[in-house]
Design brief:
105 residues, mainly alpha, two-stranded antiparallel ribbon
Length: 105
């Protein structure tokens, strides 16, 4: 907990204890050790622990970031890709809206 958070909690503690709870950090559900993720293996069930770890990796976006950082992509290339993706989204939206919807009854 930083000094700023501690001061905020002390300040709020004097005046409004109901709002104090939102400034107190909650315990994390997943245990982190440094920059890595950690999973507990229960009852020698390694498969379940691997599934949990995979879910945590997908949720944090670690694998996606590794794929993106595999090769250097210049800012110009990123901007061009983003524009192309926006045009594609726009084209799909227009195509979806232009289809006449038939009554199914």
């Amino acid at each position: 907990m930083s000094r700023y958070q501690r001061k905020t909690i002390e300040f709020l503690g004097k005046y409004n204890k109901a709002k104090m709870a939102k400034y107190i950090p909650r315990e994390k559900k997943q245990q982190t050790f440094g920059n890595g993720l950690m999973v507990d293996v229960r009852n020698n069930n390694v498969e379940q622990a691997i599934r949990k770890l995979k879910k945590m990796i997908m949720k944090d976006g670690i694998l996606q970031e590794v794929r993106e950082r595999r090769y250097f992509i210049s800012n110009t290339e990123r901007r061009l890709k983003a524009k192309a993706a926006g045009r594609a989204r726009h084209r799909r939206r227009i195509a979806k809206d232009s289809i006449e919807k038939k009554r199914l009854y």
